[in-house]
From TrEMBL:
Keyword set includes Chloroplast: no
Cellular localization per UniProt: Cell membrane
Signal peptide per UniProt: none
Name the UniProt record assigns to this protein: Olfactory receptor family 7
Membrane association type: Multi-pass membrane protein
Entry keywords, A to Z: Cell membrane, G-protein coupled receptor, Membrane, Receptor, Transducer, Transmembrane, Transmembrane helix
InterPro entries: GPCR_Rhodpsn, GPCR_Rhodpsn_7TM, Olfact_rcpt
Gene Ontology molecular function: any one: G protein-coupled receptor activity
Species this chain originates from: Heliophobius argenteocinereus (Silvery mole rat)
Keyword Plastid belongs to the record: no
GO cellular component, one term: plasma membrane
Chain ranges passing through the membrane: 23-42, 129-149, 169-192
Length: 214
């Protein structure tokens, strides 16, 4: 998912910088957006699954092998892929409904879905419905799941008497928590920032953080 996510934007960015090309075809833009959403959403859902995995490992260690059995792991993986495909196709179908565009320029180094949807000069009702629906399903719920998992993890760690035991238990969450902070911190800052305070330059830096750095 990570390789696919960064590969949907970075090669085009490198080629564009080397050849001083700042254009992309309509079909190419929709294709890039589809893969970006597909792998980005897969990253999103898998980070949530990983948070749940760590919650079970730390809070219910004796039941870990039973709860996180191979069958459940495969089911969670398939659900992540299915949800990502649905999200990608929803955005694609919404973009294909556009009949006219206000502009043909976007303030980003890739076809960022919200910026693409903002180019439409047609009725914004469908666009707003899709934005809020997708935001709740693939943004609010996964984030809530991660926060709840780490709340339970921290509560369990505080009950461990020895600091060495706390460190050992929390060290298993370190890399995951770092990626979550980078991915969600910059992503939420980009997509939920108010329009009035939105800066294209800051938006591109934030986009670079969660598309490449993580």
């Amino acid at each position: 998912a990570d390789i696919g996510f960064t590969s949907s934007t970075t090669p085009k960015l490198i080629v564009g910088n080397l050849n001083h090309i700042r254009v992309i075809s309509y079909v190419g833009c929709l294709t890039q957006m589809s893969f970006f959403i597909l792998f980005g959403c897969m990253d999103n859902t898998l980070l949530t699954v990983m948070a749940y995995d760590r919650f079970v490992a730390i809070c219910h260690p004796l039941h870990y092998a039973v709860i996180m059995n191979p069958h459940r792991c495969k089911l969670l993986l398939l659900l992540s892929v299915f949800a990502s495909l649905v999200n990608s196709q929803i955005h694609n179908l919404t973009a294909l409904q556009f009949t006219c565009f206000r502009d043909v320029e976007i303030a980003s180094f890739f076809c960022d879905p919200p910026l693409i949807l903002d180019l439409s000069c047609s009725d914004t009702l469908i666009k707003n419905i899709v934005t809020y629906m997708v935001g709740i399903l693939f943004g609010f719920f996964p984030t809530s799941g991660i926060i709840f998992s780490y709340y339970k993890i921290v509560s369990a760690l505080l009950k461990i008497p020895l600091s060495g035991g706390r460190y050992k238990a929390f060290s298993t969450c370190g890399s995951h928590l770092l990626v979550v902070c980078l991915f969600y911190g910059t992503g939420i800052g980009t997509y939920l920032g108010s329009f009035a305070s939105y800066s294209p330059r800051k938006g591109m830096v934030a986009s670079l953080m969660y598309t490449v750095v993580t």
